Amino acid sequence: MQSASDRHVYPAHWEADVVLRDGGTARIRPITVDDAERLVSFYEQVSDESKYYRFFAPYPRLSAKDVRRFTHHDFVDRVGLAATIGGDFIATVRYDRIGADGAPASAPADEAEVAFLVQDAHQGRGVASALLEHIAAVARERGIRRFAAEVLPANTKMIKVFTDAGYTQKRSFEDGVVHLEFDLEPTDRSLAVQYAREQRAEARSVQRLLVPGSVAVVGVGRTPGGVGRGVLGNITDAGFTGRVYAVNKAFPKDLEEIDGVPAHRSVREIEEQVDLAVVAVPAEHVPEVVAECGAHGVQGLVVLAAGYAESGPEGRERQRALVRQARSYGMRIIGPNAFGVVNTSQDVRLNASLAPEMPRPGRIGLFAQSGAIGIALLSRLHRRGGGVTGVTGVSTFVSSGNRADVSGNDVLQYWYDDPDTDVALMYLESIGNPRKFTRLARRTAAAKPLVVVQGARHGGAAPQGHTVRVTRLPHATVSALLRQAGVIRVDTITELVDAGLLLARQPLPAGPRVAILGNSESLGLLTYDACLAEGLRPLPPLDLTTQASAADFHAALSHALADDTCDAVVVTAIPAIGDASTGDAELAEALRSAAERVPGKPVLVVHVELGGLAEALSAAASTAPRTGTTPRGTVPRPHPVRPLDFPDEPQSGPDGDPGGPPRLIPAYPAAERAVRALGEAVKYAQWRREAAEPGRVPEYDDIDEKGAARLIDRLLARGQGLTLDTDDTCELLGMYGVHVHRALHAPTADAAVGAAEALGYPVALKATAPHLRHRADLGGVRLDLADEEQLRRAYTELAELFGKPEELRPVVQRMAPRGVDTVVRAVIDPAAGAVLSFGLAGAASQLLGDMAHRLVPVTDRDAASLVRAIRTAPLLFGWRGSAPVDTPALEELLLRVSRLVHDHPEVVAVTLEPVVVAAHGLSVLGASVRLAPPPARDDLGPRTLPAY
Fold first, then answer.
1. Are 770 and 758 a contacting pair, CB within 8 Å?
2. CA 752 – CA 738 distance, rounded (Å)
3. Contacts 24+ apart (CB under 8 A), 186-190
4. Residue in 498, 495, 533, 497 with CA at minimum distance from that of residue 514
5. How far apart are CA 571 and CA 592, in angstroms?
6. Residue 474 pLDDT more than 60?
7. Residue 325: which of 360, 356, 279, 363 has the closest Cα?
8. Which residues are CB-contacts of 813 (< 8 A; sequence separation ≥ 6)?
């Protein structure tokens, strides 16, 4: 809370850009004394009815006293926020702290009156809801815990804003006024409301970019060639269903059209509404174009120009200015340095990209931060012929370039409820907000598969042009957290395509049991080995011999699919030789017809030097026209290519729909690729089943949350960040039911004996110097010392081996029951948030990196899976005849540590090491805790766009 000396300091961290319900943006910022003219102008544009609802009486204009009151704030007891577009106010909100009697007050009073006013032209856009989130966050920061509001009964819109927010509230009616009171502490319902609004707004903002009614290409050259002219041609060649305009300020005044498209010297000259502008001018001319677009009411921009953050510090500042300028007009940006966007829907047919050919319509959504990778993915998804399976289907494609504004998070929000997208594929070189990404990924993955390949994994930094928060977590940890959120993590774009095509057209397997059949014993054995390597459970391969006919394949596949002991089938095929060999088309039809009879199990084909089969499989399942002409905007069918191409898919609807199109069987040129894709599908299906019952965060009666908060406040009063001493650590952990075994310092042998007598024999003697701490392998620990003689001898040995006692820092601790030594850690990462980690203690586990991780808060199911996720977990469950340890006690410890860091964001690091888990109970023998002031805003705070 601010002190009297700094209560008037402008709180810049309250400034934020937000996405509104219709997909446009606005800026929220504190109101200052410099806003008097803006406030008066804003008030003049508000209707008399809205003014009456605000002041409960006719109030045609603001007096000088009113203006002063509404612009002079101390940012503590009186706060005003404004939503602005283009620098002009469109809505305001303010609170005034009040006491129990309703009169103005200061802290420790924790209640405030709140009131809104929204310009009529912007009502219904969700402005008031966004302002409520932000003013509530400001109030919590200033120690206000409750809002009160008085609303006229006829003002139903404002009543709905309050009642729909999800806060715990009271409502009463007195003297013709509705009186509302609501607590500001976030609840599960308020967060659900906030996230739902966020999803709708951000999805709508992307929809405005992908489903425009009109497009203007700015920077179209007068002569053929060039980026602008090329994009214009791509849009018209794709058959865009909306209006298209060509813009170049160098066009002659008498030029009316170019390439059959209306030509204009400026966006402002276009009489109709322009929804999307594709900006293909040099970077130095982009600000002028953005200003014209903003003034004309353009809703979004695709900026193809380079020369921004990827070019160095000057370009980075140019990029920041670009985003600020676009957002000031309520526009969102894809780019800069973008490759463009594609929407293959028959109602849109938009190819506003540098891709010269329109992808075939389908069910895969594709996002790439790199234009080069985007080109490669589109190319691989479109190939077919020898070793592949027909025409790829793409619903939407976004290549974001530097992703200064619209990011993968925004596109995920769009794909979540996009009926045209069944599978999402993403190539990411950086994750700007991992905490939000994992939250969105978890929700998306519960509805449709999300496959991600992450580039720049080992570079240690994001690529130039990507302005992101730096995570301190290793890549393996980030990958584990993504998998926990349901993300299918793959390592290459080949695996990205392989997995995506399987998931797009085959049902999820019910388990890991795999039937293998085919006409090659060797290929079957290779597939069998590949299944074992992926953790699958293959059945013995069925060899149909090289003389197998299409009928033999049909019968074998039908039998395998009907077998309750298998969950998926891999068909292997090699070319047959001889006049009686099975034709590719005949074999493909046999496999397709057998698979259609049992649509609940996935079927994959592994083919070797059999390009015709892949082509035939595509033909057997394709719904594409079979005439000699190619529909406009599609990629023509090429001649068969070499076998080691990439698998694709034809346009078709979701599988399993009784009235849907034929089912596609994906084909792969290598057993390892097919099985790897199947393995990812099996793991994803298992995650989907577990996600249906996510578990709960248990409540513990012995947790003293308020006492811990008071202790933390008292400790932080000493400084900005500190590592707690032993006594404070034990006290704080004890308030959450985590009890640490006492360790008494022993600077001398006599002190060690005294400590042992106080604790009771047997005891352990440990060196706690940094280079020896938790390194029993170095000999700095002596255990089971039963009496004084043994203790003094051990003390002398340690001193002889490692140096003087002041260098060793020896401690004495009562012996704990024998068990398995483990380590529990929690850390607050600046990008990923709170992460709970678990592993076995010791050098071997550290060397192997055998740690498992979960995002906080951890549920009971998360804790159970965390214990079992490490490779050395069998040691906890009776490996090779040893006694199983008390894993329920270990899971409870994990849950208590999770609660501590979740309840108190000031706790930025916790380490419990070692935690000895015995057959009955456990003992925490060492602990450390670090505190730091919490961030002003976190993922529980109000909706905001990344700051620029």
1. no
2. 26
3. 186/940, 190/165, 190/166
4. 533
5. 12
6. yes
7. 279
8. 741, 742, 743, 744, 759, 763, 764, 766, 925
Alpha-carbon separation of residue 941 from 142, 436, 944 (angstroms): 14, 12, 9
Residue 692: pLDDT band with limits 50, 70, 90: confident
Burial of 792 from C-beta contacts in 10 A (0-12 / 13-18 / 19+): middle
Instruction: Give the three-class secondary structure for 785.
Output: strand
Look at residue 111 in the predicted model and tell me its pLDDT: 95
Task: Please report which helix (H) or strand (E) contains residue 502, including its range.
Answer: helix 493-505
| Contact predicate 802/824, CB 8 Å | no
Distance CA 861, CA 686 (A): 14
State the chain's mean pLDDT as an integer: 86
Tell me phi and psi for residue 46, to 5 degrees: -90, 140
Q: Among 110-119, 383-392, 423-432, 694-703, whose mean pLDDT is lowest?
A: 383-392
Secondary structure of residue 769 in the 3-state scheme: coil
Q: Where do the DSSP E strands lie in 768-865? A: 781-785, 810-814, 820-829, 833-840, 851-855
Distance of CA 394 to the CA centre of its chain: 22
Return the SS3 of 60.
coil
Query: What residue type is 928 in one-letter code?
Result: S
Q: How would you classify the pairing of strands 603-607 and 568-573? A: parallel
- The span from the CA of 120 to the CA of 143, in Å, is 32
Instruction: State the pTM of this model.
Output: 0.84
Alpha helices (H) in 705-821, listed in sequence order: 705-716, 726-734, 749-759, 788-802, 805-808
Residue 623 has pLDDT above 70, yes or no: no
Q: Where are the alpha helices (DSSP H) in 297-407?
A: 313-328, 371-382
- CA count, 13 A, side-chain hemisphere, 94: 19
Structure token digits, residue 907: 């706790």
Cβ atoms of 902 and 703 closer than 8 Å: no
Q: For residue 119, give the amino acid letter.
A: Q
Structural tokens at position 918: 């015995």
Place of tokens 């769009």: 414
The DSSP code sequence of 324-350 is: HHHHHTT-EEE-SS--EEEE--TTT-E
pLDDT, one tens digit per residue, over 648-687 is: 333 333 333 444 445 688 889 899 999 999 999 999 999 9
Q: Within 13 Å of residue 304, how many CA atoms lie on the same side as its CB?
A: 23
Question: What are φ and ψ of residue 13, in 5° steps?
Answer: -75, -5
